[in-house]
Amino acid sequence: MRNVKAKRGGYAVGALAGALVLMVTTAGCSTSPAKADSPKSPVAGSGAASADPTPAVSAATIAIEPANGATGVKPAGEVKVSAGNGKLTSVKVTGPDGIEVPGDLSSDGTGWTPKAGLAVSTAYTVDALAQDAKGVVVNARSTFTTLTPDKEAGTGDNIADNGEYGVGMIVSVSFKRAVKNKDAVLAGITFEASDGTVVKGHWFNEKRLDFRPENYWTPGTKVTIHYKLKNVETAPGVYGDVDKDEPFTIGRSQISTVDVATHKMAVVRDGQQVDSVAFTAGKAGYDTWNGVMVVEAKEGTTRMTSAGVTKEGSGDEYDLVVPHAMRLTDSGTYVHGNSWSGSAIGRSNASHGCIGVTDTTAGSPSTPAGKLYDSSLVGDVFKVVNSKGPVVSADNGLGGWNLPWGQW
């Protein structure tokens, strides 16, 4: 997903000085004056009214925050309408589109606040009515403009619009700037699944938020991510930068169990085993991770070096170009084609942690590695068992399935 940056523009507003507390009354009315020669005309000095009565003035007052003409208003927490010596009878806050902002009236009728944050870079008008104990009405109007963010969160994820993914797919949302208001961001990202699957988010740190259901997705499920972050203050002075719907689909199920003890991989598609693939895994000291790993990228032909994996001068250095590479972890675990360990594949473990499958040097679609690669989707599950290595960390690649649901 590409980061989305909306074009923002300010709106001119009227300038009225000071905080707003207005009181207005309505004038009376009368019938046409009687003719001078009419017997029903008032007689001078008779005590009959000769003019309209003085209009009643409401004891109620209305205060609107922020002040009229204010600019740079935060979209959350700064808008409030209150009544004194009376109760609010109507509050309407509207943007340039004329749509009313939903709000909550206090139980005693003296206060009103918006139910959710307003939009950034937007001009709003507030119209309010209140009445006193005698029913005399007062009205007030104010305009203000919300701020235009100087800093944005820099939001991205690992989903392509209308992409198809395996049943183990975890949606990982990243932020370029650290998120402090995690609950507000979490509330601004929701999932809609065609089968009603419940999806939960888990923060791994201030810049990474992953989402998954309790169990693997059901094949064929259509999912839409709803992003509503543009008006969310993700950290002091920093705002979200994306409002969009992002649809994707879950494809067929393919779960491969990688048994390091037998050097055989059972490939199960839609509940039926369709292949048994020989492989070589990590040797002693470079043991392959145990646990559930998910294909996070199909990289094809990839260069792999021992930098950061082996010690210089250990004799274990390598610099290889490998075909049919599928990344399983951020730390560098792959399922990939292997043309140099023929005697070990299916018999022993000889790699530096990766899962090597028989292939040619350049990679062939007819080899076991080529067939496995072509049949795989990003989001497919590889579950490693019986390795002497530890269980892969939940934040290493899309390893979230290794974290119990109760801790997610």
TrEMBL record:
Domain L,D-TPase catalytic: 254-385
Keyword terms of this UniProt record: Acyltransferase, Cell shape, Cell wall biogenesis/degradation, Peptidoglycan synthesis, Signal, Transferase
InterPro entries: Big_10, LD-transpeptidase, LD_TPept_cat_dom, Transpep_catalytic_dom
Superkingdom classification of source: Bacteria
Pathway of action: Cell wall biogenesis; peptidoglycan biosynthesis
Active site: 336 (proton donor/acceptor), 354 (nucleophile)
First and last residue of the signal peptide: 1-36
Region Disordered, annotated ranges: 31-52
Protein name: Ig-like domain-containing protein
Provenance organism: Kitasatospora saccharophila
Lineage: Bacteria, Bacillati, Actinomycetota, Actinomycetes, Kitasatosporales
